[in-house]
Amino acid sequence: MHIAPFDNGNQPIVDVDHDLVPLNYFNIVKLTKGEVFDYAVPGYETCIVPATGTVDVDVDGAAFASLGHRVGDVWGGEPEGVYVPVGAKTRMTCVSDTAEVFVAGAKYDQVLEPFDVREDGIDRVQYGSDDTKTHRKIKHILGANQHDKVGRLLVSELFTVGAGGWSGFPSHKHDTDRLPEETRHDETYNFRFKPNHGSGLQMLQREDGKAGDAYHIVDGSTMLIDKGYHPCAVLPGYEMYYFTILGGLSQRSLKQYFQPSHADQLHTIPGIMDMVAKFK
After folding, report:
1. DSSP annotation string for 205-228
2. pLDDT per residue over 196-208, tens digit each?
3. Is the full-model pTM beyond 0.85?
């Protein structure tokens, strides 16, 4: 499902128990200096990640000052995040002129401890190649480094390297719990492009061997991935970013199932198995 950019008024774009992706929660909060935003999401653990700007965060009395330092856009520096336990009363206060803040969530039934992830805690992976048109880098905010501190939530930022190319290929899915081959993880993306008038394509093939759907994604598009194989691409001459939320049904570690008709290309894309190993 594609959700075109709109002014959500700081209200969830993907609310609790969503029809398509009930394991996910997603909000975009926009603030000006001195403004505050309070929230609590019963039944969901969340992660606060400033896309741009800086906020002070308070989670049930635990203070995390000066989160986020990017200016201009998501290419303007390294990400930072704060993990928020299930149902915790949370306040963010804008301390920069403006801030745009992602709030990512996953359904979970236990209450853990809050913590922050600063620049030096980001887990970075780069893989693919220009020759295979799959060159990209991933910055894990809640990735393998935080595995023992988080319930079901994985949060990452994905960037194409260079202008143009494919991401999420070889085609894969994760819509069925059938370990050890695959896990059920609902997924939500928010896309950005550089320059921001760029655009791309999100494919979604719900059944192997049958024609699927294709969505024109633009700066600010949100995609909900509930079922099927889902590679995406950016137009030549543009860079693409997408904020990624994964929520697992029975475990946090993601087990992707690669489409058999394309699986041989796993051996042609440099570093792809290292990339797969980081979604834990």
Report:
1. B-STTS--EEEEEETT-EEEE-SS
2. 999 999 999 988 8
3. yes
